[in-house]
Amino acid sequence: MTDPLTFLRTRRSRPQKLLTAPVPDRDTVMALLEIAARAPDHGKLEPWRFIVLDQAALRSLAGPVRAMAQAAGQDADKAAFQFETSDLAVVVVEVRKDSPKIPAIEQTYSAGAVCMQLINAALAAGWGANWLSGWPSHQRDFCTHLGLDAHETVAGLVHIGTGPATMPDRPRPDIAAITRWFTP
Is the pLDDT of residue 51 over 80? Predict the structure, then answer.
């Protein structure tokens, strides 16, 4: 087992197009969601929830996504690809909560942190995982197909499955070039 810091230093998402079956079972998905829900949450608002999409659910969304893309002049094949080829995805839904103390942007950050926690939990458990959103996620019609309320949006679709054991790394930022130590 890799130590936690080495895991985080070397973690690498697996491209959704490379993820295959088998996928985690219901109990495993629930355990991964429990870990994801431990993301930072200023004010304990829980400004997110989950929708699990199995293969049948994903395929049922492909047609409407394809039609929405065509109507909007978007690339329908590209828009529908993740729904036509994936076996399991978790929609992380941002649920904005009215709060006099917690700004909306902090709720957005929390939903993003949930996506990242879910990715890391899946990878640490030996699954392949990839966080996508894409054009459909930002369309109100797509949100309606998912049953989202008007104040809810898609923070991300986290695809989970069996992926390559390792992936080549991609270029990473030069930390020294983007870091400044503030001194008054």
Answer: yes
